[in-house]
Design a protein that fits this description.
Number of strands: 7
CATH class: Alpha Beta
Strand content: 25-35%
Shape: globular
Structural class: alpha+beta
Order of helices and strands: EHEHEEHEEEHH
Oligomer: single chain
Distance between the termini: 16 Å
Largest sheet: 5 strands, antiparallel
Number of helices: 5
Number of domains: 1
CATH architecture: Alpha-Beta Complex
Helix content: 25-40%
Strand order of the largest sheet: 4-3-5-6-7
Bound molecules: the ligand O=c1[nH]c(=O)c2ncn([C@@H]3O[C@H](COP(=O)(O)OP(=O)(O)OP(=O)(O)O)[C@@H](O)[C@H]3O)c2[nH]1, magnesium ion
Length: 190
């Protein structure tokens, strides 16, 4: 069976590794990457995702996917949300945990939004995946972003305490990719 080639535009090597592991685990897709750190507008997660993918399609000059990850704290009305990268860079994982020290509710949602553009000038289509959990003092190796402070409801472990396969079976990224894959498989059969 021939596989469909997809260009994933990202500046993040950890994301690329997880996307390849999830999408290339079964025949159907081959992922190539282009490394660009695309400027991200402020707005809702959907506005940020659409703008990022439109710019990526212009840069690539063809079909592509992009991904935007948000970490939403329930007590903070879903902030930091799409601004998590800056918050993590400035506060670190300890600081992010302390942000919630004044609140009983440590609940959080990891939200992944993939955007697919068929090429420059076409409107991106969005695919969202969510993992519910809570923010805890860091546990596990600090190998990727805020993995050590996000404890998933599914198994009570932080993302950092999980093996790659365990994380990739329940993650926000996996749940969004299931939807993207179904969409692309539909396209290739029509
Ligand atoms: O612990 C984590 N587990 C994850 O599963 C995960 N996915 C993303 N992140 C981090 O959250 C911010 C998102 O920002 P982001 O979506 O703009 O990513 P990015 O700028 O690194 O890459 P890209 O925009 O070039 O694709 C960045 O700090 C990422 O490192 C994660 N941290
Ligand atoms: Mg980014």
């Amino acid at each position: 069976m021939s596989s469909q080639r997809l260009v994933f535009v990202t500046g993040n090597k950890n994301k690329l590794r997880e996307v390849k592991a999830i999408l290339e685990s079964a025949p159907g897709f081959t992922i190539e990457s282009q490394s660009f750190d695309i400027p991200e507008l402020q707005g809702t997660t959907q506005e940020v995702s659409r703008a990022k993918c439109r710019q990526a399609a212009e840069l690539i000059g063809g079909p592509c996917i992009t991904e935007d990850t948000a970490l939403c704290f329930k007590a903070l009305d879903d902030l930091p949300g799409p601004y998590i990268k800056d918050f993590l860079t400035k506060l670190g994982n300890e600081g992010l945990f302390k942000l919630l020290s004044g609140f009983e509710d440590k609940g959080a949602t990891a939200l992944c939004t993939f955007a697919y553009s068929a090429g420059p000038g076409t409107e991106p289509i969005l695919f969202e995946g969510r993992t519910e959990g809570r923010i805890v003092p860091p546990r596990g190796p600090p190998n990727f972003g805020w993995n050590p402070i996000f404890e998933a409801e599914d198994n009570g472990k932080t993302f950092a305490e999980m093996s790659e396969d365990e994380k990739n079976a329940i993650s926000h990224r996996y749940r969004a990719l299931v939807k993207l894959r179904a969409h692309l498989e539909g396209l290739s059969h029509s």
